[in-house]
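User: Show me a protein chain along with its predicted structure.
Assistant: Here is one chain, sequence first, then structure tokens.
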Amino acid sequence: MAALGHNVWLVRWMTFVYSGFWGAVAGLLYIYYHKYVHPTTLSLTSSAEALLSVIAGGAGTLAGPIVGAAIVLILKNYVSAYLERWNMLLGFVFVLIVIFMPEGIVPGVRRLWTRWVAK
């Protein structure tokens, strides 16, 4: 980027400010909706669920984290009503995704779809 004449420091700074702004907006909306913040909101479990969502769906796509978040939320909200160890099932599903679709669900399904259409 610097060789092309762009100010790399300014681009990084603007990106940092932009992401910080949207993070603050998300935090304010969370506070406005829940009207209370508990320390478990920032626990390791919720951070791991967010990271799992991105990795499972596909980090290189826009739809990947959305699909991953849907899978994690379905397992968290619906399966936890029937299973006491839903975290173990979540880990098992994550391991299956990493083994069979290492790039994520969305790119993996896209790859399978193009392979199927080509036949």
